[in-house]
Amino acid sequence: MYGYGAENVERIVLVKKLKKPPVKCTLAMYGFEAPDLWLTGMGMDNAHLAPEANRWAGWIAIANPG
């Protein structure tokens, strides 16, 4: 068989949530940090709109729990 495969796999995420207790995970890169609250924003919850998510990035928000 062929020896195809990745030499290295890294984790890259948009949001790194500040969870308590912290999650033990090594990230190569992340977009921004956010508190451990529900996040909402265009493209984050609609798979068919994901290619347009960059133009809505400034509208990602933390939902007010109260």
Shape: elongated
Beta-strand segment tally: 4
Measured by DSSP, the beta-strand proportion falls in: 25-35%
Distance between the termini: 58 Å
Query: Percent of residues in helical segments?
Result: under 10%
Describe this entry's structure for a reader:
There is one protein chain. The protein is mainly beta and 66 residues long. It has one domain (12-62). 0% of the residues lie in helices and 27% in strands. The chain is built from no helices and four strands. It has a two-stranded parallel ribbon. The N and C termini lie far apart (58 Å).
Task: Please give the structural blueprint.
Elements lengths: L11 E7 L10 E7 L3 E2 L20 E2 L4
Fill in the keyword field for this structure.
single chain, 66 residues, mainly beta, two-stranded parallel sheet, two-stranded antiparallel sheet, 4 strands, 0% helix, 27% strand, elongated
Summarize the structure in short.
With 66 residues, the protein is mainly beta. The protein has one domain (12-62). The protein is built from no helices and four strands.
